[in-house]
Design goal:
Blueprint lengths: L2 H21 L5 E2 L13 E6 L7 E10 L2 E9 L9 E7 L9 E4 L3 E2 L2 E2 L1 E10 L2 E9 L7 E7 L9 E2 L8 E5 L5 E4 L6 E2 L28 H6 L5 E8 L5 E7 L7 E7 L10 E6 L6 E4 L5 E5 L12 E6 L4 E2 L1 E6 L17 E8 L2 E8 L3 E8 L5
Parallel strand pairs: 1-23
Antiparallel strand pairs: 2-27, 3-4, 4-5, 5-6, 7-8, 9-10, 10-11, 11-12, 13-14, 14-15, 16-17, 17-18, 18-19, 20-21, 21-22, 22-24, 25-26, 26-27
């Protein structure tokens, strides 16, 4: 048998060994069951943008604090989710209450008489320079590219910079304890040691290279099926003090069983273990992990499993050890009423992203993929 024919068998053997190793490590879990009895946080909330008659799809938001301003970006489409013509916009606020009207950060271009699709992909700052990332693919979700634009004031942006990565990120770059930047994708997690976040990216995944050529919202099904895994996508990671990276993954489609899956890296993001199912509940939505100033770990997302895909309530869960997330708070559960139907529009609190600034935790979400809202609350409430 030739070396080429042996590769799939070698990959399967490595995955089996990784699964055995993973089974010997503590399973990350939460204890959320229902909203009943869980305390509600005292919050402040502001609607950044709510459309009237045009640009009715708004999703994939991220927020950052940069040079005395809050900057928010998100995907902005005409009616339907991820359709040709979708662009990326941004808004600016000095107080997180009064926000500027959305301005275009990046526009799609024509590809064979059809506009491409752009997706907001996170924010990052270094040495007084702000970087905004966005993905692009053609109508049939091919030719995936990651782009970046930079700014020194959060208002004026550079020309697009090709990152030479075939993915649409779930979250923008986040730094490990050693300073390496890692992008959380669906099943690829590119990394770079360039602190600017603009070059020298290297691809990394728990899948063998032979199983994929790009990473976007249509490509995570095939490699999963070939290796007997459910459709895994939209990761978010945190790092414990032993320097292990824990990347939690959403399961969607027919594979959804109400649980997040986990892949881990012990070498600063170069290699990742075969994913395993956790006991961390999930509503079938994006989520975000982080670490509080007191070193506890936190999760912002929708852990409810009783109302699949409702994406309500929005919950904060806290863990002392990064294993058991057993302290829960309701961030918000009020309903938003959709103004205009559209393809895949729904979900009360969609795709949260969070930051911590001046003893407040800020969470930006989409409301039924139509409006963009930001919520903040004081960390003093988290006992």
């Amino acid at each position: 048998m030739t070396k080429t024919k042996l590769l799939p068998y070698i990959a399967l053997l490595l995955f089996t060994l990784q699964r055995v190793n993973a089974q010997n490590t503590p399973t990350i879990r939460n204890n959320y069951q229902t909203e009943n009895g869980i305390p509600h946080l005292k919050i402040e909330r502001t609607m950044i943008y709510s459309p009237e008659k045009v640009w009715l799809y708004n999703h994939h938001p991220s927020v950052i604090h940069f040079k005395n301003n809050f900057i928010a970006i998100w995907s902005n489409g005409l009616i339907d989710e991820d359709s040709p013509g979708q662009r990326v916009v941004f808004s600016v606020s000095a107080d997180c209450v009064h926000w500027s009207a959305p301005a275009v950060l990046a526009s799609p271009h024509l590809d064979h008489d059809t506009l491409t699709v752009l997706t907001a992909a996170g924010l990052y700052q270094h040495n007084g320079k702000l970087v905004a990332y966005y993905g692009e693919y053609t109508k049939n979700r091919t030719n995936t590219h990651l782009w970046a634009k930079t700014s020194t004031d959060g208002l004026h942006w550079s020309k697009a910079i090709d990152q030479h990565l075939p993915l649409i990120p779930n979250h923008g770059p986040e730094a490990t304890s050693r300073g390496r930047l890692i992008i959380s994708g669906n099943f690829t997690f590119p990394y770079t040691d360039d602190p600017s976040g603009l070059s020298s990216w290297k691809m990394s995944s728990f899948y063998p290279d032979s199983l994929y050529t790009q990473d976007n919202s249509a490509t995570f099904y095939a490699p999963a099926a070939k290796l007997g895994l459910p459709p895994l996508c939209e990761g978010s990671f945190f790092q414990t003090d032993d320097e292990v990276l824990h990347m939690l993954l959403r399961v969607t489609g027919k594979g959804w069983k109400g649980r997040l899956w986990l892949t881990e890296s012990t070498d600063n993001g170069k290699k990742w273990s075969r994913p395993v199912e956790t006991a961390f509940s999930d509503n079938d939505s994006k989520f975000h992990f982080g670490r509080l100033p007191d070193k506890r770990f936190y999760y912002v997302g929708i852990p409810d499993t009783l109302h699949h895909y409702d994406r309500n309530p929005l919950v904060l869960s806290i863990s002392k050890d990064g294993v058991l997330f057993d302290k829960n708070y309701i961030i918000a559960d009020e309903l938003y009423h959709l103004k205009k139907e559209g393809l895949w529009k729904g979900g009360q609190y969609g795709y949260p992203h969070s930051i911590i600034y001046n003893n407040y935790l800020y969470v930006i979400i989409s409301r039924q993929k139509e409006s963009i809202e930001v919520i903040r609350f004081s960390l003093d409430q988290l006992k």
